Amino acid sequence: MRFSAGAVLCLFLMLLFAPGMVQAETRNDTSLDCAIDFSSPVLLDHGQFVEVTVNEANAVMTADGSPMMPVFSKTFEFPWGTTIRSVDVQPVQIQTMSTGKQVRPVPVKQKIGNDIVPFEGRIDQTMYGSVEPYPKTWYTYTTGSGLNKQNEHVIFLSCYITPVRYLPANHVLQYSTRFTIQIKYTPPAATLAPATTYKLVIIAPSQFSPLLQPLVNHKNNYSMPTTLVTLVEIYSTFPGRDNPEKIKYFIKSAIEDWNTEYVLLVGDISKLPIRETYGSEWEDNLLSDLYYADIYDADGHFCSWDANGNNRFGEVNHQGNDLDGVDLYADVNVGRLACTDATEVTAMVNKIITYEQETANQIWFKRIVLAGGGIPSPCIEALLRSSMKGRSPIQRSARPSQTSPRRTSGPPNATCTRPVSTGRSTRAPGL
Ligand SMILES: [Ca+2]
Ligand SMILES: [Ca+2]
Q: How does DSSP assign 195-218, residue by residue?
């Protein structure tokens, strides 16, 4: 199951304004129980079709030509090493409703030239002639291993509930306004902390080693135990089908033997390789350093990003289904200084040290300019209030007339550059 960009926006809005639907969770040592309430479905007329909506849904199913059914997703967290034994989601009372006409299908995507073009109204004839409910099950779920917002290594379990199912041949909906969830699990066994700790590991080609030593020294003086490991050492010591996989096995070793939380890659992709992935049927050869951060699957095993063994990494099929067992949750924080030569390495090292020694914790360090668009400003403001509690906006919006609302490149708006010039961090969320 994969969600469209529109669904992402829908999710964003729902997170802000939907009332709390998830009833209180109860957890003990081996199970989690909760209930989720939904509104009754509402039908929106689209001429030949009707669109099915449920107020609390935060996504839609996106299989081309299939009914566009609402989805509610909820993610639970468990301590790393937890074994999920079973997941059960049940509708409490199934009711029915007539749609009168066909439910709106998901637009069928076709690649025309370099563009991906959606075509409305094209239906999967077999699907729409079926007497079986769509989807077949009320829920699916996925598990993964990664870091949560508190930078804790956890197991994620995401439930995707379809509160409404569609019987296409009869133009009938089945729905329930309450679902129960029960997750049974086995807690992790206690483990011993590694004797040696390097919270930060820097990986670089040998030619950059002397230039990076001041950064290693600086970090070690700032409560960030750090070590530098060269690619030569990694390539000669760790297994792997190619150099990126050897680097990934080394990072796994650092997490387990040194309790490493941060990895800094130094060098552009000609100096330190990157992984080419196939994360979209429409776009091959997507470059990704997330490959180096997503080390484990939900069972705690090394994730090669190539479960089907065809040397194409991170593959998805036409419906967006993962073919390579990739959970996409980072298990360690990875960044890259994409330096091409010694001059750039020295500049970056000096900037980091100066930044952390001289400017961190000054007053400007706590001011930030957030630039965004694409959704109404009240939504942005509500998001800021919910995510940045205790901080006060001093200017809530720029005048859109200062730049064309359709412009996507060019010099930034003066409303943004003026406060940045006087000292602020910046962040431009891609909304
Ligand atoms: Ca593959
Ligand atoms: Ca992972």
A: SS--SEEEEE-GGGHHHHHHHHHH
